[in-house]
Specification:
The strands form three sheets. Strands 4, 7, 8, 9, 13 and 14 form a six-stranded antiparallel beta sheet that branches. Strands 6-5-12-11-10 form a five-stranded antiparallel beta sheet, with helices on one face. It has 15 helices and 14 strands. The N terminus is likely disordered. The protein is of the alpha+beta class. Among the domains are: about 130 residues, no CATH class; about 160 residues, no CATH class. The longest helix is centred in the C-terminal third of the chain and has 36 residues.
Length: about 525
Amino acid sequence: MNQISQNDINGAGNVAKPSPRVSVDSAARLAGVAEAEKQMRKGKIPESDRVVLAKNLGKMFNAACRRHKELSTRQIFLAAFGEVDGESQYKKRKTLVWMPGEEGRAPSLQTRAIKYLDLCDHLMRYLEFPQGLDDAGKRKRALLRLIEGSSYDQHGVRRERIDAEYRQELDNRIGTVVRRLREAVDIDWMRLFVNDHPLYSRGLTGEFVPRNHAEGLQIMEATMEVGGGIQNCLAPTARIASVFTRPKVDRYMYVEIPFSGDEEDSGNLPEELAKFFGAESAEIEDLVPKVLEQEGWQECSNDAPPSNLWFRSVVDMEVRYDLDSASWKPLLLWRRLLQAGLNPVDEKGRALDFFSQPCRGAEGRFLGFDEDSYLYAVLEARSSGACRWLLFVMDDFYMDYIEYTVELFNASLDTGFCPPSAGYETIMFQRLDDCCNNDVSYELEDSFESWRADTDTGFVKAPPGSLARAIIGNLAYAGPDQRLDTLLIKDAKHKYGILKDYADKGEREYREAISRFQASDARPE
């Protein structure tokens, strides 16, 4: 039996209880370290997590150098990466390591996990750990220090349970939306009709303007099934957000074109440019080479005038029929806009529509291309007697962004707003700010943003900053006219009416034709 000293006896002659100790049960977190490392190595690390990793590495550097006075930051880099790569990495240290109290540029931090992990593995030999740990145990704790405070720190039983609850909540609410949609509109008839009578549409993405045959580039397939084209026009659609990607402008030039009369007339810009530059005609093959050969073109830099131009793509929710499961399923589609793509942003950050076809009164024009160079113009200013245009050239911009925007988003697709990468969690639950950087931004539609003013607590059972939160918050707090189910039903009813009119017209034409056949007395000779 252990001896009890006099100091352990209180005034009443009773044995004093030991003082409570602060303890942290890290077993569950340590158990999740391997999974966390696996997730980190999958692809790009979200920006918010990169900041956490850089600061944690700074703390580890600081601790190592305190314990080993002979160490320097440069020595650690050289030892971790070798002489050549180590020197290079040391010169750009702030892309990996932020020392305590130091701040860097978050977008400049390295996006892949490999360098962070290599530094962590090398620092392990200089750090202090509980006694009796083998190398594997030390490495687990070193990794835990690296990821502490990041989203990777939460992988494990507790995180999985919370994620499962989020997904279940979303499935339940969206299931109600789909049920209400089917009760309000006969979307089954719509699907069967277009399967039997193939239709196409001309218009913006998500709009239905029926055509019975495909003609031109701006034609979309009218389908309501999962296997259909991304630029769908008939499936019930609600716009959730716009995504803005900064294009890489090659060169630019300002041109002031005079106009005659009381009002400026910039309705036929190609003809005005042809006259101004002396081109033989306003046709692409004559105009574009003439413009591109002019003096005055300037190379584009980060602070050049075209730097405020953005390519706009959209995130839409559609309800489509899945043949594999024989059920209607909601899908998030991230896609480009047909007929509306490039969007300048003014000094207040407001997006301006930029149409790819010459259009009177539009703020911007697509003029044409010469081999791989695409020529655009933006109306910068109107003054007395002249219009000031900003001309700029990009390399095959239109095709470059199709692959980034034509993606179906559901629970099984792992990607983000940036070029697709297997490292992202499904976009529905990803923190949107982590998908963005200086070259990519997003803007929620008012219906999925303004509901925040209608709640005192802002509580939503979904990850913060995610599309899931915007959608469930909309269903919980938005007004009836702004709710997702209302928006989908409204769009479906509108398209149902157009399709029904088209079907009725076709039925009448067919009956009239059959009546003429029945009434004819033509006989074979």
